[in-house]
Amino acid sequence: MSVPVGHYQYDRIDRDFLQARIAEFEGQVKRRLDGTLSEDEFKPLRLMNGLYLQLHAYMLRVAIPYGILDSRQLRKLGEIARRYDRDYGHFTTRQNIQFNWIRLEDTPDILRELAEVDMHAIQTSGNCIRNVTSDEYAGAAADELVDPRVHAEVLRQWSTLHPEFTFLPRKFKIAISGSPNDRVAARFHDIGILARPGEDGAPVFRIFVGGGLGRTPVIGEELFDSVREEHLLATLEAILRVYNAHGRRDNIYKARIKILVQAIGVEAYREAVEAELGQMELDRYRLTPEAVAAIRARFAVPLLEAPDDADAVLTQQRRDDPLFDRWVRSNTHVHRDPGHIIATISLKPAGGIPGDATSAQIGRLADLADAYSFGEIRITHLQNVVLGHVRKDRLRDLWLGLSEVGLAEANIGLIGDIVACPGLDYCALANARSIPIAQKLGARFADTALQAEIGALRINISGCINACGHHHAGHIGLLGVDKRGEEFFQLTVGGRAENGAALGTILGAALPEDETVDAIARLVDCYLGLRESGETFLETLTRLGHEPFREAAYEAV
Amino acid sequence: MKRPVRLEAGQKLVLTANRLLDGRTVWWREDGGWDLRIGQAVLLDADVAEAALSRAMEEAQRKGVVGVYDTAVLPVVPPEPVTVREKIRAHGPTVHPEFAVETAQ
Fold first, then answer.
1. What pLDDT is attached to residue A557?
2. What is the pLDDT of residue A1?
3. Same topology for domains A12-116 and A310-404, yes or no?
4. What number does CATH give the domain A419-554?
5. Would you tell me which of A84, A91, A553, B68 could form a disulfide with A355, CB atoms 3.0–4.6 Å apart?
């Protein structure tokens, strides 16, 4: 027996609005095609509907609120990939999906198809509040303190079409987690929210502001430690108002909230927010227990029934099958129900394109979600897919099903689990290609036993300073740069997005593209030679400093 | 305003844009039309490129293209763009050989 997937629910007003918005955009497309609208006039309109013009075609970015889909929605995404694109989609670092080969005149039809399953592409671009991201293990993980989906949905409703925040100085990204283990990179967001139970059991929220990557990477600073649930929206509203009023609009490179927070200091920002709160009608923004309860009811935990011997069955299957055991070690996480487990499905096959999935794979994922996880799917900000509630005694069957479509790579959190932006192969902003380097690294470290031996090591690759591949947050980061028309990569080490967030620091001069993979291989060899028992890459780096790694990376240059 | 392309010895200019309907990369032909194949692009010297660019931009809507600009190429057959970015635009994404663009004349 299954219950509906926990996520937002549309009513007639939502659906009517989407249809009206699509009709409006269809009219705008027609006027663009007949020349009534110039490209300068049309560009902001298409961007407000998630449509970019990239190197080879239009790209449509579809919102996946807090990364959660039901199988019906995922199947629709696969159908769109097959019918309107080139048979694949690309899952992004904001838990969204992008289609890279879209025709302008097809876009209204695609939006209608998305609307059939209560999806859209609104606020996936532009200077507004973008898709709110959350923990991919939400509502399932054993280490969770507060289910962040409930408040992620509150934030979705609050931020969608918010009239005051539709034309901010710059784009605005919010992440929310309810675990003591930060899986959302909270301190690299414009606003990062960590929920925990308060003394009375009701949730309270620790709020960071002014984090971000891009050309000015900054770790967010704590604005408030314990915002009460009833004041969450008022507080966020006040933070946005201060930014909207004082954020710079004269220079796109200095327009993010992080620049404002750095310029005036977090103390002054806090005072400004408190002053704003002091003159707001707080009752208007009060998040009532009834409103939260109504939303929480949509996130019912599925009926988690499992046989008494589910754990024993899994244990025996792991003993019998070393390959399966390796996958379980790297690709699963502890569920709060002892009979269930969380499975992370890698979209990083050795030598493959990080985050890409074919329409056949997308369709199969939907089928497997129906069969093994109550028809629910989560997209991670690390470009993978999670099935949140898999019965332990059925996990091997799921793994076998994944193997049939090339989705059983055992590399989550390991060196093969590379995060990469689309880079210069698609992106109009990029300076260098991210994907080929990711493919070469993936192939170089294809051996999953070697990956397990290396242990926790994240590589993030960005094709330009905009940092969509989050290279500053990678244990090893690669930034593509253009030197007189040639691709080079700058290496950083020591970044981390999890607890103890840190920015990677530059190891040395940028390397030519064809020397980069060898340099990273030498760096990894150096770590393997120098580490002490049980030490991770980051721990060895912390103990020894950069110098041995710099020498190793550059020894042949 | 886009900076003028600085040509090195032996290089020529071509005009490029994206097709309005589907965003595909196109190249300006001698007859004023646009073509998916860079092999069909007319090679321009710097002294005539400015006038050609102005004309192509004026005609962009009527010809169904967007984002017209000039870029440097080596005058081989087919012309080879100087930058990695324009090579990728001319040949297609390097990570999907099956999407390679026909470039010959």
1. 58
2. 38
3. yes
4. 3.30.413.10
5. A91
